[in-house]
Amino acid sequence: MTRDEIQQAIITILTKDFEFENPGLEDNLRDAHGFDSIDAIELLGKIELLLGFSLTREEKEQAMAIRTIKDVVAYIEELQRSRNS
């Protein structure tokens, strides 16, 4: 997936499944949208479906530092690179 495709997929997930309204790429998901650890776990499950593979425990732990949509996109890009190398 390209960066734009990833970004659009994440925005679609956040608006459809988490009911975000007009999320900004730099919005702090916790502060601006009330995103909590349970939401993060649910989002990780959706990312696994999007990518077509399960994340390791370490990959999931790394994801807990994510704060913005831009961070989510960069995280997914890194996952794709690590799996394709």
Strand and helix layout:
Layout: H1 3-16, H2 29-33, H3 37-51, H4 57-63, H5 69-84
Helix pairs in contact: 1-3, 1-5
What's the overall geometry? globular
Please state the CA-atom Rg, rounded to the nearest Å. 12 Å
C-alpha end-to-end distance: 15 Å
Uncertain residue ranges: none
Q: Under CATH, the topology is which?
A: Non-ribosomal Peptide Synthetase Peptidyl Carrier Protein, Chain A
Q: What oligomeric assembly is this protein in?
A: single chain
Strand content: under 5%
Structural class: mainly alpha
Sketch the major β-sheet.
none
Q: Which H/E pattern describes the elements? A: HHHHH
Binned, the helix content reads: 55-70%
How large is the count of helical segments? 5
CATH superfamily: ACP-like
Give your account of this protein's structure:
The protein is mainly α and 85 residues long. It has a single domain, classed as ACP-like (Non-ribosomal Peptide Synthetase Peptidyl Carrier Protein, Chain A, Orthogonal Bundle). The chain is built from five helices and no strands. It has helices at residues 3-16, 29-33, 37-51, 57-63, 69-84. It is globular and about 35 Å long.
Condensed summary:
This protein is mainly alpha-helical and 85 residues long. It has helices at residues 3-16, 29-33, 37-51, 57-63, 69-84. α1 (3-16) crosses α3 and α1 (3-16) crosses α5 (69-84).
Properties at a glance:
globular, Non-ribosomal Peptide Synthetase Peptidyl Carrier Protein, Chain A, 67% helix, single chain, 85 residues, 5 helices, mainly alpha
